[in-house]
Specification:
single chain; alpha+beta; Thrombin, subunit H; Pdz3 Domain; six-stranded antiparallel barrel; six-stranded antiparallel β-barrel; 12 helices
């Protein structure tokens, strides 16, 4: 009688002693079994318009369907899924596939490109879920697992160690800078994006992201503490709401240190402090240099911003500050920006007054000699977007201006006739 190879394998497995199976069930196996049911495959479909190089002049642009693949993590049994923003950006249809093969439609609740995080709501319930854990006590060298769908291969597990914390890395196209990534040596490939990074206890310590091309043998993840802060805002507001401290910061480098006569070569210089702000309450003064936040050394302005957006709104943050020859310890709390703050900055710093006219954000006034005037903007131009986001309301424009304060600049998409101009303004 002939026995198939599959039959032989099944027979061998059936004869494996239970003690051997138990010995092979390592902590890595246990973690994979615990977390994998909450990891999903994400297929994001979008419609792309492109001109035919031969017949576009006569027949206009054509459309084609594009598909992006990624991973996600169910963090709530009601169907709340966390993934990377770049996985679902521009998607007209999002399909989520669970470990047991169910295909579920998903709606985008909110996303933030700067944090590279998005939140989806799956049309289903009673789903396996693993909540976000904590990343504040991570140890360099501890074992980590990345679970996802690299290259569309479902539920792949890779292992490694935590190599570094607080890595500053640019996005693939270089349009934004991430300042707080976890670095790991577990493989992170296209399709892994949005899946969980977990420790040996099965706790989610980060969200994997594949945003750097050619980074062989190196993976990056968004820390869980940072992800939780962003996800909370996306669930409540559909966007990451900006924060306000009233302190304008500059990164300390050799040139800046020479200009201000600073002994420090790293840190964040307090360039300006606004009245009636949290910075005033904290005791910050212009030309202070922030050296550390909560004991963590500060190298750039972005490091301070990251600390603010990781902490809970209004939570006290301990600052180590150099003022002349003295080192001070101050406590800073961030708040929501006052009403109308962004639009006031737009007028005072850039020289633009914007109004809603016939359903469009329209430039009402351009101050003579202002940044906007020198860049050639004029009355009647349309504001179509800010910081890479389509903008249709004044309050949304104001929020993007405040977020521009954290970045040190504001990118405006301005429409005039059939043309759109992207203009960058320092803040």
């Amino acid at each position: 009688m002939l026995v198939s190879s599959c039959g032989l394998a099944d027979a061998a497995r059936a004869q494996t002693p239970a003690s051997e199976i138990a010995a092979r069930r390592t902590p890595v196996v246990a973690v994979a079994e615990k977390v994998s049911p909450a990891v999903v495959n994400i297929s994001a479909e979008s419609t792309v318009r492109e001109a035919d190089p031969f017949f576009g002049l006569f027949f206009g642009p054509t459309t084609r369907s594009a598909q992006a693949l990624g991973s996600g993590l169910i963090i709530d049994p009601k169907g709340i899924v966390v993934t990377n923003a770049h996985v679902v950006e521009g998607a007209s249809r999002i399909l989520v596939t669970t470990l047991d093969g169910r295909e579920l439609e998903a709606d985008l609740l909110g996303s933030d490109r700067d944090a590279d995080l998005a939140v989806l709501k799956v049309k289903g319930g009673n789903l396996p879920a693993v909540p976000l854990g904590h990343s504040g006590d991570l140890m360099i060298g501890e074992t980590v697992l990345a679970i996802g769908n690299p290259f569309g291969l479902s539920h792949t597990v890779t292992t490694g160690v935590l190599s570094a914390r607080g890595r500053t890395v640019p996005s693939e196209r270089g349009e934004r800078l991430f300042t707080d990534f976890l670095q790991i040596d577990a493989s992170i490939n296209p399709g892994n994006s949005g899946g969980p990074l977990v420790n040996i206890l099965g706790e989610v310590i980060g969200i994997n992201t594949a945003i750097i091309s050619g980074a062989s043998g190196i993976g990056f993840a968004i820390p869980a503490d940072r992800a939780r802060r962003v996800v909370d805002d996306l669930l409540r507001f559909g966007e990451l709401r900006p924060l306000w401290t009233g302190a304008r910061l500059l990164t300390v480098d050799a040139e800046l240190a020479q200009r201000y006569g600073l002994k420090e070569r790293r840190g964040a210089l307090v360039f300006k402090v606004y009245p009636d702000s949290p910075a005033i309450e904290a005791g910050l003064a212009e030309e202070d240099v922030i050296l550390a936040v909560e004991g963590k050394p500060i190298a750039t302005r972005e490091d301070v911003t990251t600390a603010l957006y990781t902490a809970a709104l209004g939570a006290p943050l301990r600052l180590d500050v150099r003022r002349g020859d003295r080192t001070l310890q101050l406590t800073l709390r961030s708040v929501r920006p006052p009403e109308g703050l962004g639009l006031r900055f737009l007028e005072r710093s850039i020289g633009l007054v914007v109004e809603v006219k016939q359903g469009h954000l329209t430039i009402k006034e351009v101050a003579g000699g202002s940044l906007a005037d020198r860049r050639g903007l004029r009355r009647g131009d349309l504001i179509l977007g800010a910081n890479g986001q389509e903008i249709t309301a004044l309050d949304a424009l104001g929020r993007e201006v405040v977020r521009g304060l954290d970045r040190g600049g504001l990118l405006l998409a301005v429409g005039r006739g059939r043309y759109v101009y992207n203009l960058d303004f320092p803040l």
